[in-house]
């Protein structure tokens, strides 16, 4: 029997809340709902959901703060649902810990497709702790040790608190080394698609990759001018920075 997947819908609009609940139920989730930000934070802590849809315009706490609070205890995928079309609001949502976003009104089919793409990606280290140690080799680069199996990134003896999306982007660059990956490549990687599949990647998807890479760079304490791990190839994309002489 497959493990039950848990979904959490944090939305104050009853009609939208019911629509999202139905979409996630049809995708095989055991769905719980919350109509306020505070209730959503509590539910995320208690339920340990696999995926959360989060309205940014909640009546008590704004969605940005809800995402930040959830990120303190949860590695769930967070999809922001927003009626705000402004790019700044979208970027703030991703910087607060969101993995993806949809602007209202949205098509239920698109929401389901994004959720299913996320769920094809590995979840957290707790899912693979029983794997044989030899099947989980570390990748070490300039003092950063990353394990794909346990999904951990350790720098100077401290495990970095990365979101799933941030970890997947870091892993993608470690795997391909000095090969440059475009923003479109990385967006497809986050969908669990091959780099060369040729599927459409929007400007918004590419901008989201930029924001996630910026968040990742901050957590690494990396420098754009003298990068140790994430090198920006201006106008193209990203690649792994060269190995230091003492690495």
From TrEMBL:
Taking every annotated instance into account, which residue ranges of this chain make up the domain Response regulatory?
Answer: 6-119
User: What residues are annotated to bind DNA?
Assistant: 136-242
Which keywords, in A-to-Z order, does the entry hold?
Answer: DNA-binding, Phosphoprotein, Transcription, Transcription regulation
- Where 4-aspartylphosphate occurs, the residues are 55
Matching entries from PROSITE patterns are given as: OMPR_PHOB, RESPONSE_REGULATORY
The question of whether Phosphoprotein is a record keyword is answered with yes
Task: Indicate what this protein is called per its UniProt record.
Answer: Two-component system OmpR family response regulator
- What is the organism field in this record? Paenarthrobacter histidinolovorans
């Amino acid at each position: 029997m497959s493990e039950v997947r848990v979904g959490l819908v944090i939305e104050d609009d009853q009609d939208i809340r019911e629509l999202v609940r139905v979409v996630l139920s049809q995708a095989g989730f055991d769905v719980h709902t919350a109509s306020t930000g505070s209730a959503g934070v509590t539910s995320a802590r208690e339920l340990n959901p696999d995926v959360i849809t989060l309205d940014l315009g909640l009546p008590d706490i704004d969605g940005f703060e809800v995402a930040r609070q959830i990120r303190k205890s949860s590695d769930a995928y967070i999809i922001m649902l927003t009626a705000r079309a402004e790019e700044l609001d979208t970027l703030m949502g991703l910087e607060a810990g969101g993995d993806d976003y949809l602007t209202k009104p949205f098509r239920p089919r698109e929401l389901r497709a994004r959720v299913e793409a996320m769920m094809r990606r590995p979840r957290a280290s707790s899912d693979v702790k029983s794997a044989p140690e030899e099947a989980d080799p570390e990748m070490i680069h300039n003092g950063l040790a990353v394990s794909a199996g346990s999904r951990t990134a350790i720098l100077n003896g401290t495990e970095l608190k990365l979101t799933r999306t941030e970890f997947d982007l870091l892993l993608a660059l470690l795997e391909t080394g000095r090969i440059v990956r475009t923003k479109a490549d990385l967006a497809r990687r986050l969908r669990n698609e091959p780099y060369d599949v040729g599927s459409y990647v929007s400007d918004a998807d590419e901008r989201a990759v930029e924001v996630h890479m910026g968040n990742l760079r901050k957590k690494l304490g990396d420098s754009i001018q003298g990068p140790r791990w994430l090198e920006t190839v201006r106008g193209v994309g990203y690649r792994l920075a060269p190995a230091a002489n003492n690495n």
